[in-house]
Structures
1.
Amino acid sequence: MKMANSGKKGDWMNRREIDHCLLCNAPLTIRMDWKRLFVNRFPQAICQECEGKFERYRHEGNEEVDSLYYYNEAMQDYLHRYKFMRDVLLAKVFAGEIHRHLKNRKELIVPIPMHPEKWKERTFSHVDELLRQARIPFVHVLEKTTTEAQAGKSREERMKTPQLFVLREDAQVEGKDLLLVDDIYTTGTTIRHATQVLMEGGAKSVKAFTLIRAKGGQEAIKASPLMF
Amino acid sequence: MKYILRRNRESKRYKGIIAEPEIRDFFLGKIWSREHAPFSKEKLDCYISRSFFKIKPAISIKPSSPSLFGKRYFCNRCHNDNQREFVEFDCARCGKACVYCRHCINMGRMSCCTELLVWNGPSGIFPKRHVFDWNGSFTVLQQQAAEELRESIGRKRNHLLHAVCGAGKTEILFPAVFHCLRKGWRICIATPRTDVVLELFPRFQKAFPNTIMHAYYGDAPEQKGLAQLVIATTHQLYRFEKAFDVVIVDEADAFPYTYDRSLQKAVWKARKEGAPVAFVTATPTSELLTKVKKERWGCSFIPRRYHGHPLPVPRFEPLWFYDRQIDKGKLPKKLMHWTKRRLGREEPFFIFFPAIPLMEKAIPLFQEIHPDICGVHAKDPERKEKVMKLRNGEIPGLLTTTILERGVTIKNVQVAVVGAESKIFTSGALIQISGRAGRHADFPNGDIVFFHHGISVEMDAARNEILRLNKEGFRT
């Protein structure tokens, strides 16, 4: 995915591509220093003001699932624009952060898949794109069996959902350590189902990482108008 | 006589269907994506096969001259051609490399596999019988302008109505609109701000009670029927193509219209071939004025308010280092005295700030003088309520950003601008702000103060223009 007329192959090479904040369209002042010049492959995609509106997640040591941000108003808006309005370019917003967070993981990265019909409807896989833009390699190991979405369900309904996934025929998970990746963790039902299938498939261990963590409670679930 | 047997005399046999009025009403003049159309797939497919619709891909790809620049994309919905706003990606639906337009994405994503439907069926007939119910009366100047506007539009000539704030611009539109409705024409009144749409709609409904009219803005509810009069935000014009016999652009100097080229193009795109466009504004841009001269548009100029009194002229007051003082939690003396005088005389007031952060820091300082003073900005959900409260006298004054620079009418309001030298206060903005004062016949004078840290060119330009308008308006 690249901006039209970038001219060069490999959009991450061309730092001049994004000159306006992807969220609020304010002109971006490039924060430059020697480190960024040589090391940083991920140019800023959003301005400081927009960045300040997101809330970092504090990982408590005993949590099974790691996340980067809380699901606050700014994040709700981001997800709405990215998933619902299908603004694929917004996958670049957190590319740098996701890359830094996952680059040293030794596990095999497994994204939570979409049902093929939903994938065609949305025209792209939101989780795959986040990983792709973050230059994190991944492998598809699971398949989604239902088009039913978790969004729109109450907490109880979500937790009562029957198994959503099956192992793919070509999946090789025996004895491997895996890291599941999804966009948002609310009740954990999705992750739990995926973990079960993977463990039954012979995986040695399954951990999880999501970009967003919903703050606990019914309110958080009711407040999220995620459509699919 | 030889009879030549002809097979397939398709044209002579009536095989068609009659287009349902509901579908025709919805699509007439509009350009809508197939997937978002509120009708069943089967119905749409049937109509498409009968050529009631023309299909256009949402994004056109044009080859560009030197192949260095690759392809040139063009969005058929919003007419954006800025290549930086197009994003290429691999699409799962069409299975190949696809492009979408980011410019109009918040109205629904247009990609190259999105299909746009343009109505190609029978057009509706608009009624010519309308009721005009308005009891007001015009001043001489208003009458003249209304006549000139009607004349221009009747002759399909573009027109500029340059009328100062409070001149009664909306009423001047009534005769012209009535004239067009009676001709069976379809009219659109476009304005950059949703607030103005919501303000104009009931006024037009009252003036033309029999006419079917729709209001279009973001999150507007669905309205049925074939609207002959459409009141919409300029963004909504993206949805129309060759739809209107006349387009009137109100507040043509407001944000975002002035900054967004494609909105300006949308106005021209929405009208039918040869249809006239009328611009109504208190502060025409120099670009517009040049066009008026070059292309010989009709032009009406009203430098006086409906009540006949001159515009109050702003005065300048230095307020050195006001931002530092407010930062330190101290309200500058002159500002405090001005506010106290307003409170003492029970005059409602607006205090304009250049930016939200500065205003937020100032609010608690003002609340020490009077606890009910509050602040308002564009994203404030209680904005309308607060303006109401000021109007009712429930609160003594409002701190605000430029969101209230236009459209608001409060009797006897006094106006102060803090930081009038800031870049955001262009001369147009300052003129509009000054236009908030003195609108009511009983209170034609209001105090307008520009508190500044150095007089800017824009401040001078605004003051000079107001003086000039007063001179023009009172020449005998």
Note: The CA atoms of residues 43 and 91 of chain B lie 27 Å apart.
2.
Amino acid sequence: MVADALVFEPVGAQALRADRARALRLAELSLSAQPLFYRLIALSRDAILDSVARQIADPAFDMAAAFVLRDGGDDEALVTDTDMAVLASAQMAALMAFLRLVPASAAREFQTRMRAYSASIEPIGDTGRYVSRVAVAAGRQGQGLGRRLMSDYLSRIGAAKVHLHVHRDNAAAIALYRSSGFAPRSDAGYVFAAFTRAMTEL
Amino acid sequence: MADTDEIMKRLRPLLREAFPDGDAGAMGPATTADDVIGWDSMAHVGLMAAVEDAFEIQFEPEEITSFANLGELAAMIARKVDGG
């Protein structure tokens, strides 16, 4: 029943520039999708939100394409992606955006933390789309929004191969991705395991 | 027009700082990331942030990875210093 009022739609950078409250709402969702990453950045939450708000739907960053589930006027779930071909440079652009804001005295520590974080992520040497964030608003979890979000996203994007990372302890997310057709790429045991959904030929 | 040789000279201490395990003295315009020990993506980002500070310029996100070697980086810095 709950899903009937939901609308899946893309979000453009222009719409977010014109509506700061909405951009910050989506930035909150983005942060909730990667809590361990953003916690490594020695900046205030407001400073991080401000930077992330400007990265969403900007083709230079890893949230180049953004889609939401809206209920009435509210964004209740967010999925973002980018092309695997530009993922590395898009991630560097994001690191650079944060590094500029970090005081010079903390730059070395920032680099050390980010290196350790990177080492916990399973490499994906492949082509296709990369899902960089998946988030459902805190008050709307457990209502099937994640499943609806992934299903609408995958239909919309129509890519032969879609990849993502998931924390190995995040059982709910892993169950969602498996039921959406994703499978682990290996059993290498990274903290952030790589999953891929390859469209099967009919 | 900013001189790229001069820029290479000014880059040297930044390279030493960004790649402490690399041989900054041996780096020249043809040097690529693959030639330098410790030039990973995080060191790359650190170098670019240091370059922005030192030359008082700001790179567009797509410029951060838009050069193949140090010579191209120096040329890009020269363009930006000149306001191009």
Note: The helical segments of chain A are 13-18, 20-33, 35-39, 45-55, 87-101, 107-119, 145-157, 171-179.
